[in-house]
Amino acid sequence: MSEVMLYKVIVLSFVTFYIVNGQVLEGLLALDQLSFDKIVSKFEYSLIKFDVGYPTGDKHKNFGKLVNEVRKLENLFVGEVRIKDYGDKANQDLAKRFNVDEDKANLPDTILFKRGANGVEEVVRYGGDYSLDNLRTFLSRKTGVYIQCNGCIKELDTLAEKFALAPTREERQKILFAAKSWAAEKGGDSEIYVKIMTKTLDSGVEDIIKEIKRVEKMLENKNSDNVKDKLTKKRNVLNSFKVRTKDEL
What we know:
Blueprint: H1 3-20, E1 29-31, H2 36-40, E2 45-52, H3 58-70, E3 76-83, H4 92-97, E4 109-116, E5 119-125, H5 132-143, H6 154-165, H7 169-186, H8 191-199, H9 205-220, H10 225-239
Parallel strand pairs: 1-3, 2-3
Antiparallel strand pairs: 2-4, 4-5
Helix pairs in contact: 6-7, 7-8, 9-10
């Protein structure tokens, strides 16, 4: 086993240990000035949350859940940096290095990094809410790594992306046929992909974008847990078409 691979195994094992034992930060590995480059540079992509000294709440909780979902992916790391404005004022140097506003009102600030030829490079900052589904979608889109969202099916996600990129109705029709064949054999939640493709067959991306906005607006309204779950699944499937909107994360 190579030194790099061994290092990844150690880090991932450490993170898993935290998850299994339900300890601090629900599996998040807290980095500091000494460990940041040493760990982040070992992975192709790293999503790092810069947060207050003792983070709490749903944003923190959902980010911790994300760690559990990606822990088996060798080239993706999810961790955090806690910035303290008291005592030893830990990690303020890291905050300044990456232009993170240390004001508590502006935290967390989450950054996607990539391992580059000259060290750790910033790719993009996360600008969405901290729902688990949106965090998954952001990571998947920005890294190309497949992370299965609630209600999604990997094989049909692949077809959905091809459908959105298809330049003609004829090509979309062929992909729809493939999706129908898969759905007829497997069943389950696959029918939603067929319905979306059928509805957007003529105009493709244009109608998909409209449907995404419609479902997002419906999710903003007060709904029962059952309705909200169905809408969330549909939103996740729509996102698998990987169209680009002005409101994209």
